[in-house]
EAL domain-containing protein (Massilia niabensis), 283 residues
Amino acid sequence: TAMYLSKSKGRHAITVFNGDVNNWNLRRHRLRQDMLHALHNGEFLLHYQPQVSLMDNCVVGAEALIRWQHPEYGLLSPSAFLEIAEESPLIVEMGAWVFNEACRQLRHWQELGHSLQMSVNVSARQLASRDLPGMMEQAIKGHGLSAHFVKLEVTESMLAQDFDAAAQVLAALKQKGFRIALDDFGTGYSNLAYISRLPVTAIKIDRSFVTGLTVDKTALPLITGIVALAKSLDLTVVCEGIETPEQRKLLESTQCDSIQGYLISRPLPAEDFYSGFLKTRFM
Ligand code: C2E
Ligand code: MG
Ligand code: MG
Ligand code: MG
């Protein structure tokens, strides 16, 4: 039997395990092997979560989020496998697959007459690979897309290791026209002075701030301030993790551009995203 991982409390926890190979490294090795196989076997897929304009509720974008349709364990979320992929060069290949698939899907929706931006998450190892801009440029060219419709999401933690190298790669990507968003903003040490040194075009305010909105009196002034500063730096602002109408309502007093969260929709398979958010609304 194989051994597997599922998200419990923010860390992966083994759920099924072959008793005599009781070794964490072996489990990880096995999981990486399985992921490599899964990649070549077409077991990964993307779900898409809508991003809507706060002002008029229009769908302005989609975030592509990886899933693994596992033959034994069903549909797995990134928390069950991504961290282990990220520890190895496998993430570079997986990331390239994600990027190409997201581009293919975006192009398909564009051909059906829809204008939206596609956000794709990028991991640290990908950013550290020098040919990332080349891979991405080739992908958009291959799909006949303009880089302006593609937004790369990076987190500040991945910039911590080699800030200058990462900033250089991001600058090259921005130069090619890609949009770049700092994901999970506010969870690390980043302040806006630091951001202004980075070639980013957007920030995504982390869900934890939004969660605080209805429970903590300082949360709204904090978000309002972050948004105002970001806007003064000409950055686009997305708020993530909006789950309730109250949270949405409170954000309306800020200059936040767009929102993403379960209130609008969970991440969806491409067909459901299309029928729920593109077809019915605009055609
Ligand atoms: P993220 O980029 O911050 O993506 C947002 C995560 O929050 C997603 O989880 C999404 O399903 C979840 N989410 C969205 N709205 C809400 C909400 O209202 N409430 C709550 N509680 N959660 C919400 P998911 O899909 O499990 O992805 C988790 C993380 O895995 C992502 O966080 C991202 O860091 C990473 N990830 C996902 N797909 C990829 C990928 O293709 N490549 C890379 N490198 N990382 C990925
Ligand atoms: Mg993201
Ligand atoms: Mg995020
Ligand atoms: Mg995150």
In short: Residues 90-111 form the longest helix (22 residues). Residues 183-184 surround magnesium ion (ligand 4) (CB under 6 Å). The radius of gyration is 19 Å. DSSP finds eleven helices and twelve strands in the chain.
